[in-house]
Amino acid sequence: MSRFMKARVAAVDQLSSSVRRLTLVPADEASPFTPFSPGSHVVLGIPGEGRVCRNAYSLISPPDDPSQYCIAVRRQPVSRGGSEAIHSRVKVGDELELSPPANLFLPHWQARHHLMLAGGIGITPFLSYLPELERRGASWELHLRSQDLDVARFPEAAPYLASGNITQHRLERPNLKALLARQPAGTHVYLCGPQAMIDAVKDAARELHWSLARIHHEVFAAPEPGTPFMAVARGSGVEVAVGAQESLLEALERSGVEVTSLCRGGVCGQCRVEMLEGEAEHRDAFLDEQERASQRCVMPCVSRARSQRLVLDL
Amino acid sequence: MQFSPRDDQAFHGQFTFKNSDYAIQRFPFPFPEDEYRYSVNIEPHVLPGKPGSITEHMLDIDEHYLSEIAERERVLAKDPRRCLVMPHMQPAAWDFLEFVMTHYARDYPEAFSFERDGDDCVWRNHLLELEQSFRMGDDASLPLPPLDYIGRQMQGDIALLDQRDGDLFMDAGMITCPADWSLAFDAGMSFKQWHGPVPLAHEMGVFDRALKYLCAIQVGGPVRRLNWTMTIHPRMDSSPETYAEWGSDRTTITAENAGRDVHLRVELQTLVRMPRSHALFFGIRTYLISLEDLCTNPVWQTRLLKVLKTLPAELIDYKGLTRYLPSVLEWLEAREASVAAKANAEATAQAAV
Ligand code: FES
């Protein structure tokens, strides 16, 4: 899934002391952005010292408008590089790499009422919910707990501020149990924020005997790739360095080693290769527990190495 | 592309359905090897595919377009429940309409056109002589609800799956040519429920793996697979609802008529993520070919015989072949024998010269 596209930074806005909003537009007219579904995220590639940082960010702009994508980024105290770069270096006109939108946090459209609870920057996925919830005439409310990030600073929230459905909690903690207790039956709850908040909501839900199937929280897919390693194809004598952003299969193909493949997603079993040395980090859904534990075979379309080197029977 | 004229008898009654040489040549023969093995045969739907092949474009149409549209109308007129859209799938239906119009117009410009200015659209289907102005997303601007409207102009069955809690639900679709399954019955079911009857697959954990893979399909990353079964006569609609009309056909097959009456039925299944609704479009394009036509290709003939001979009993039963498979094998073996005899005779004649 390495279909990255190019985006140009069209605007940078400071929304609070620690949150910046970026407006991205397609850098190449030939590959325009697509509309997306509410709750989608993109993986942004930001050039840093000697490497590209890849982080996932929720899209906050209206989902049916593919002319631009907006994201909001908090400066992290301990940054992995991406958020720091966005706050210190990225400026209007820069070109960044962008993955197509993916979605792991879609609203449950059959819910009778949608209750969204955000902590700080956790507001972001919900900003793309609002236009679609309104369009569908759904019943909803949104709570943001943050001292310094003001919901009114987001242009995306502006059309909904007057509805009375958005509540900002600044210093006081919302009484979660009371909040859940007054929800109509058939409510679904969406959470995005620190782990402590997620735990607190789940505890309150348990006390009220709610089914946890009605509570959803955002889990970002960590950007797939991992650490570089060496792969050796014993039979053909080829040695290849597998980069952080490519799969073992892609690296082998690049160096002319033929491997049968079909799904390229770890399910079909076609690319299975015998392993002679090294330890694999299995990421496929094909091998069974025993085969994984044996460390004798690996699915190169998705899996990688835990050791420095993998020697393959190819 | 040459479109055969609309033919209301093609898939029932007199069964006038017939493949041209070109259609035979591009038929998706589904067996990559001599022995049948169950596998997750999913692969990326990389576009454009080989020119002229059934995977050249996102959505394939062929010479049977008009006849299949006529068949769809006939089936829907008798049983409107073949089209179903649960209320929460209405946005997905619009997503889907836009997807079909965009791809049909781009890939078959001689047959369709789609102009768009913001939400104001004009759609033209030259094959059906339709022209429609409408506003994207506005139900009142179309003569029929969106899935109903575009489904009646599309070759192939349609299911729109809603994704929630890591599972897929059959919550909308238009199914008029199913191979023995029913939308009304499967509606609202999850992926595992509607695959419940497939033998062997569960033991192999195939479905858990497949489900994970399907849920991870992204916008711009469609996938496809081929599936196959057999049908008596070129009958598109072999659904449980109409079993009374076709069930007994299976008892009519003999070693004499198998070549003419038994058809290989291959489905090109495509799975495409709809961008706005995140629904997964599950498309099923069905291709039919009589064994006689199929065996004009000697390689296919030999392989089909080998595959059918090694088919596990559970699969024979599941695909509904139990009753007539012996007659099919007999017919195929007789053909193989005559081919071999002919080759022998030729070799002898050669030697004599
Ligand atoms: S290509 Fe399918 S599992 Fe690797």
Shape category of chain A = globular
Element string of chain A (H = helix, E = strand): EEEEEHEEEHHEEHEHEEEHEEHEEE
Structural class by secondary-structure content of chain B:
alpha+beta
Largest sheet of chain B: 7 strands, antiparallel
Number of helices of chain B: 13
The oligomeric state is: heterodimer
Mean pLDDT of chain B: 91
For the largest interface in this structure, which chains are involved and how many residues does each contribute? A-B, 32 and 28 residues
Structural write-up:
The complex is a heterodimer of chains A (314) and B (353). By secondary structure, chain A is an alpha/beta fold. Chain A contains 7 helices and 19 strands. Chain A has helices spanning 82-88, 124-127, 129-135, 176-181, 195-207, 248-254, 289-294; strands spanning 5-14, 19-26, 40-47, 52-58, 69-74, 95-98, 102-103, 113-119, 140-145, 166-169, 187-192, 215-217, 229-233, 238-242, 273-277, 280-281, 297-298, 304-305, 309-312. In chain A, the strands form 4 sheets. In chain A, strands 1, 2, 3, 4, 5, 6 and 7 form a 7-stranded antiparallel beta sheet that branches. In chain A, strand 11 (187-192), helix 5 and strand 12 (215-217) form a beta-alpha-beta unit. Chain A is globular and about 70 Å long. A 7-stranded antiparallel beta sheet of chain B has the order 1-8-9-10-6-7-2. Chain B has a 3-stranded antiparallel beta sheet with strand order 3-4-5. The longest helix of chain B is centred in the C-terminal third of the chain and has 28 residues, at 325-352. The model of chain B has no long low-confidence stretch (mean pLDDT 91). The A-B interface holds A 1, 3, 34-37, 40, 63-64, 100-103, 106, 108-110, 132, 135-136, 213, 262-269, 285-286, 288 and B 39-44, 88, 91, 162-165, 205, 208-210, 212-213, 216, 218-221, 223, 275-278. The site of FE2/S2 (inorganic) cluster has 14 residues of chain A, from loops.
